[in-house]
Design a protein that fits this description.
The chain is of the alpha+beta class and 76 residues long. 17% of the residues lie in helices and 21% in strands. It binds zinc ion (ZN). Zinc ion (ZN) binds next to helix 1. This is Acetone carboxylase.
């Protein structure tokens, strides 16, 4: 595990992971791509309300989505 493995910088201002979106993140999407990641690897995307469904569906159709948690409850 390395700090640089995470896409999201939870220590700073957390914004939506959707490209070109600067909205504050309100959701954390936890995912893993079994083709490239070991099972214990947890990648994170952050999403605003508007893009939560878009991003989670993107992951879900590929079978990558593990968890969707409110950002206020997200602990990394
Ligand atoms: Zn967004």
């Amino acid at each position: 595990m390395s700090e640089t493995d995470t896409d999201a910088d939870t220590a700073g201002a957390a914004t939506c992971s959707r490209r070109d979106c600067r909205a504050p993140a309100t959701w954390a999407l936890v995912w893993n791509n079994p083709k490239v990641h070991t099972p214990d690897r947890r990648k994170t995307w952050l999403a605003c309300d508007e893009h939560r469904d878009y991003l989670s569906e993107f992951l879900d159709v590929r079978g990558f989505l593990l968890e969707r948690v409110p950002f206020s409850e997200f602990e990394g």
